[in-house]
Write a structure and sequence with these properties.
By secondary structure, the protein is an alpha/beta fold. It folds into 2 domains: 13-66 and 75-137, 3-Layer(aba) Sandwich (Rossmann fold), CATH 3.40.50.10860; 143-284 and 316-344, Rossmann fold (3-Layer(aba) Sandwich). The protein contains 14 helices and 12 strands. Strands 1, 2, 3, 4, 5 and 6 form a 6-stranded mixed beta sheet that branches. Strands 9-8-7-10-11-12 form a 6-stranded parallel beta sheet, sandwiched between helices. Helix 3 (92-105) packs across helix 4 (119-126) and helix 5 (142-162) crosses helix 6. The chain binds nicotinamide-adenine-dinucleotide. The site of nicotinamide-adenine-dinucleotide (NAD) has 25 residues, from helix 5 and helix 6.
Length: 348
């Protein structure tokens, strides 16, 4: 039963869809529309059990509510999950079937990219429903904006933790050189930072060594590199109670979703005086960039919005506010950010 899931947080609507012909099985969770129609990408991956897929949809949609609220967007939180291996079952027909279901939900939710899907998939879905972000006609590849937002967040970390306005000679370890991590590394290099990088893909690390003069480190030890900032841009769950004891950086701030494996890992960081930038605040650039596209969807109310560069720069001031408030309240930045987000979506 959904209401018994530990991830259930008074979600407004949860829909289950199946299509026998294409093998589609999908869950769409809408956590909150308090601030506006919900937005949140579509994750396409196999799950060991259906209950885990449901938990993922519930958890990720709540995170989207928090992310959009803390980014100041007039947008709610939702998420779609398609159960199955995209390499095996993803077809044009399946994406169309999914798109028709999204269309049936209508004006209260728009989907977009996440793990296992591409801009091209979004365009296929867009053939049958307007409620899709991340197409090349819209904001396009969100990772460009996510990386810009991460840089704004890293500047807030530099100011708050190191009393600096620049990255010159600052040592930063970037874990993961994918769409976001590579762009973050490029901008940090341009700003004069000294980089240590790791990726499971040796071609990517070789390229970073050549282009950014980065020192290459093993994927097992990058979290423990002797640096000022550890910047996770690969996987979730990298900060555990065990890895915290090995982190030598004085701050953890990067793009990866769900970096803390548990609230206790956040507490352990704080006990070691390692500053943590809540991931759903620093990595909000993608959703921030999609605002024009989501506002243009049928039946949406247009509200005045700031230009994209200003909205992305807002990540800096929001993080500084979270850092200051968390110190004042004697809480971790994650706990403070969650509290602020809950206030912003009318849940406190
Ligand atoms: P990506 O798939 O393009 O890149 C991930 C990179 O991490 C790849 O180069 C991969 O080889 C590498 N990697 C995988 N396992 C690794 C390991 N154990 N150690 C080191 N490197 C490893 O993904 P992305 O779009 O760059 O996203 C990166 C992270 O940021 C993800 O956690 C994602 O959820 C999050 N995020 C991305 C966006 C976005 O706009 N793309 C927005 C918000 C959050």
């Amino acid at each position: 039963m959904i209401w018994e899931s530990a991830e259930f947080d008074n979600h407004e609507q949860v829909c289950f869809f199946s299509d026998e012909k294409t093998g589609l099985r999908a869950i769409v969770a809408i956590h909150s529309t308090f601030r506006g129609p919900a937005a949140g990408g579509m994750r396409f991956k196999p799950y060991d059990t259906d209950a885990l897929a449901l938990d993922d949809a519930l958890r990720l949609s709540r995170a989207m509510s928090y992310k959009s609220a803390l980014a100041g967007l007039p947008v709610g939180g939702g998420k779609s999950v398609i159960i199955g291996d995209p390499a095996k079952i993803k077809t044009r027909e399946l994406l169309h079937a999914f798109g028709r279901f999204i269309d049936r939900i209508g004006n209260v939710y728009a989907t977009g990219e996440d793990v296992g899907v591409t801009v091209a998939d979004m365009e296929t879905i867009n053939e049958v429903t307007p409620y899709v972000g991340g197409t090349s006609q819209g904001a396009g590849d969100p990772s460009i904006h996510t990386a810009i937002g991460v840089l704004h967040g890293l500047r807030a970390v530099a100011v708050h933790k190191f009393g600096r306005n620049d990255f010159s000679n600052m040592r930063i370890a970037v874990q993961g050189l994918g769409s976001v991590g590579r762009r973050v590394a490029q901008q940090l290099h341009d700003a004069g930072a000294k980089l240590i990088v790791a990726d499971v893909n040796a071609e990517k690390t070789a390229q970073a060594h050549e282009q950014f003069d980065a020192v290459v480190c093993s994927t097992e030890t990058i979290h423990a590199a002797d640096v000022d900032i550890f910047c996770p841009c690969a996987l979730g769950g990298v900060v555990t109670e065990a890895t915290v004891t090995e982190i030598r950086a004085r701050a953890v701030a990067g793009a990866a979703n769900n970096q803390l494996s548990s609230p206790a890992a956040g507490d352990a960081l704080a006990q070691r005086d390692i500053l943590f930038a809540p991931d759903y605040v620093i990595n909000a650039g993608g959703i921030i960039s999609g605002l024009e596209a989501t506002q243009a969807m049928p039946g949406r109310k247009k509200v005045d919005i700031a230009p994209l560069p200003d909205r992305l720069a807002g990540i800096n001031s929001r993080l500084l506010e979270i850092f200051r408030r968390s110190e004042m309240e004697g809480q971790t930045p994650d706990a403070t950010a969650q509290k602020m987000a809950q206030e912003l979506i009318g849940r406190r």
